[in-house]
Structure formats: C-alpha cells, structure tokens
Design a protein that fits this description.
By secondary structure, this protein is α+β, with helices and mostly antiparallel strands. The protein has helices spanning 17-26, 51-56, 70-83, 107-110, and strands at 5-12, 35-41, 59-69, 90-95. It contains 4 helices and 4 strands; from the N terminus they run E-H-E-H-E-H-E-H. It is globular.
Length: 111
C-alpha cells in the first residue's frame, strides 16, 4: 500500500466550517492535525452567491488543509461525503514530497 503523504485541501462556504471542523476532529482514526483559513474565491459562476459577493466579484470561502497517508485518502473523502452534506464543497489532492518539523538550532551545542 502507498503510505506516501498527500495533502487534501477542502474549499467550502464559511457557514459549513463548524460542521466540517467537528467532523475532522472526530474522525477515526484521528488526524494528527489540520489547518483552516479564510479565503476569497474568484471565478465566473456566481449563481449561488449573495448580491454583495456578485458586486465585489468574489465569494467568501473557508479552506482546510490536512496532510495524511495516501492510504487514508479514500476513506476520509467518503466520510466527509456521507457525514457532511455541504453544498459547494470542492477539494483537490497534491503529493507531499517532505514533511517534518524544524526545531530551533541550539547555539550552545554548536560551540
């Protein structure tokens, strides 16, 4: 099985954030962590947007990114699909070449 990491990015309406975050926090097996932020979507399909968004030419969105083993991807997408019925939820998957944490260099150890 392919254990290589991949990054799953979800883009969703801001009103869906609580539902989606709750789902991601309760998934089994647990995720090691994920990141959310606010964004603005740009494009040509503004049929389901507010008048304000149409005037501004952009739509408010939330973004969630998580790095997971590729073997976990299909089951997580299925769990999101079945437990979080979110209209206008988009996603994409990217390979991750490296992942880790950078620790500060201990200056006393270098001496």
């Amino acid at each position: 099985m392919d254990q290589s990491p991949c990054k799953l990015t979800l883009v969703y309406p801001p009103t869906a954030e609580d539902c989606l975050v709750e789902l991601m926090l309760s998934t089994d097996p647990p995720l090691t962590g994920f990141t959310t932020w606010k964004a603005e979507g740009h494009g040509h399909d503004f049929g389901n947007t507010s008048i304000r968004e149409r005037v501004r030419g952009r739509v408010m969105r939330g973004v969630l990114s998580v790095v997971i083993p590729r073997t976990r991807l299909a089951s997580l997408l299925e769990e999101i699909r079945t437990k979080a019925t979110i209209t206008n939820l988009a996603y994409w998957v990217e390979p991750v070449e490296a992942i880790g944490r950078l620790a500060p260099v201990d200056a006393s150890a270098a001496a």
